Amino acid sequence: MTNDVREFNFDGLVGPSHNYAGLSFGNVASFNNVKSVSNPRQAALQGLAKMRALSERGFAQALLPPQRRPDFALLRNLGFSGSDAEVVGKAFREAPTILACAYSASPMWTANAATVSPSADTADGRVHFTVANLNSKLHRSFEHRQTERALRAIFKNDKHFDVHAALPSTPAFGDEGAANHGRLCASHGARGVEMFVYGRVEFDAAAVAPTRYPARQTLEASQTVARLHGLEAARTVYLQQNPAVIDHGVFHNDVISVANGNVLFYHQHAFLDEAAALNALRTAMAATDTELVPVRVDADKVSVADAVSSYLFNSQLLSKPDGKMALVVPQECQENASVARYLQELTASGGPIDELLSFDLRQSMRNGGGPACLRLRVALNGDEAAALHQGVVMNDALYGKLSHWVEQHYRDRMAPEDLADPSLAVEINTALDELSRLLDLPQLYS
Ligand code: SUG
To answer: Ligand 1 pocket by C-beta < 6 Å: which residues?
Structure first.
């Protein structure tokens, strides 16, 4: 069964505590917008609008729910005690950054939720998920507990799915999930080549690494994920990200390249050794009788700085029924003169990408999260799609219910000091309890 395989995009539904806390050193947008006022309601509605538009276009669309915030287990582990309101009050007075971490809505960026290998690629013919440990940032390091619970609830069928817990939370296994992973194939249902992009190597002191900003993904983590998923060595490629671009704010590979089908859309400076990277991909793809179609963006057309500020490569590259591809970009791409010019040339070039879909995702973008960060790709055949929890699959009815729910429960203004308000945690609890009923996922937060 290959021809009925569709790629589902599981977008993160933005949580009610969306705020700008400047928690991600190395992520330029997060740092630049620290302590500005956010609008959680608008953030969630912007995300939902993208989901609805893509689902209306016929792309398979689903969502992953937000997580319970603040994470009281984290706060209590770190020594804040008393009632919930006392915990929040003490944390705000003594360590406001820790409170911001406990409140972060960062699970919205579901490209970092897990790495996913479709059944066509794995030894046991099941879809494998490895939950990302996200251990390089405190505010993301505890997401994996609720992520694992959500994935187990949504993909609850041992015959088709295998969800692996996060790797050990230690620097050797820094794992940021699908943001550093891509797949090249003839079609979503065919056997593919899985491409893992890492930023540093823990057990090789001679390996190069960035010097200014942290590399979040290690080779050791990528190799472990491939092992857990039962991937074939000949169709698995490990590429080192260019440390120089990490030092320019490319904190995940999906900020500088994106793969879909047989196309690799990438910036000239994405990889440490471009020629070797293309060779390795071509050799592996030969094992699947597929030819790589590289779409290279030269630095003299789009600089790394413009790629980072516009998020050109943090786009979704989607296969259309006519065999061509659409590029889903944030509207910041149209606002950058050189990127807009490049995109016009690209879609007129007669190449594989012939359409642009542009979205206002400003609320997420201000924290360094574009269209590709907001979604986790899961290619599923018909049986697998039927086995997935249907309550999270986007359609008009769900869109209607969720936008109403957001309008009812989300604030339209969140400043750093609002996190001290003890009623915020209560508000979020109420909202999420209702959401789990709405999605028919009672075990989600219990
Ligand atoms: O991990 N931003 C996220 C953005 C994640 C983007 N994901 C991908 N590229 N796939 C991060 O840096 C900022 C939160 C804050 O500062 O409040 C943040 O976590």
So the answer is: 20-24, 27, 30, 104, 106, 109, 111-112, 140, 179, 251-252, 254-255, 367-369, 373
